Amino acid sequence: MNISFCALILFLTANFLLGNAVYCAAARPKDEMVQAMAIDIDKDGEADVVYYFDDENINMAEADINKDGMPDVRVYAQNGKFKSAEADTDYDGKVDKKFTNASDFGAWLNQNNPELEDYLNRPNWKKTMFNF
Ligand SMILES: [Ca+2]
Ligand SMILES: [Ca+2]
pLDDT tens across 47-58, in order? Predict the structure, then answer.
């Protein structure tokens, strides 16, 4: 079971658990366990943000902005800190914007998708900073 499959299960499951976050565990190659959590921010039954994490840190976050079930923004974090972010702003499935520092990404997010700011523009990506 890979991450994409896990995400698919999450999105399907989220449809049945309105407003509830859903846990999912998937084994990566090397037997490293990765957990994911889907958040339905606007409570429409579809996952808007999915966090992927290990025991200590969130390592990636994905957000579906245009509600087509495909992630459009990805944030990568390492050791509890922002690493990079990328976005598919025209929803053609290809990344067309990349960020290598958190303040540029935060400014872009604030301008384009302020509703996701609290979820994607995190000062700290340590797992303990999240409510799960
Ligand atoms: Ca999308
Ligand atoms: Ca694009």
Answer: 999 999 999 999
CA of 75 to the centre of ligand 2 (A): 16
Tell me the residues surrounding ligand 2 (ion) with CB < 5 Å.
Answer: 88, 90, 92, 94, 96
Q: What are phi and psi of 89, to 5 degrees?
A: -80, -20
Ordered by start, the domain boundaries in the chain are: 3-129
pTM score, whole prediction: 0.76
| Backbone CA torsion sign across 60, 41, 66, 6 | positive
Taking alpha carbons only, the member of 62, 59, 40 closest to residue 50 is 62
Cα-to-centroid distance, 87 and ligand 2 (Å): 7
Using DSSP's 3-state secondary structure scheme, residue 51 falls into strand
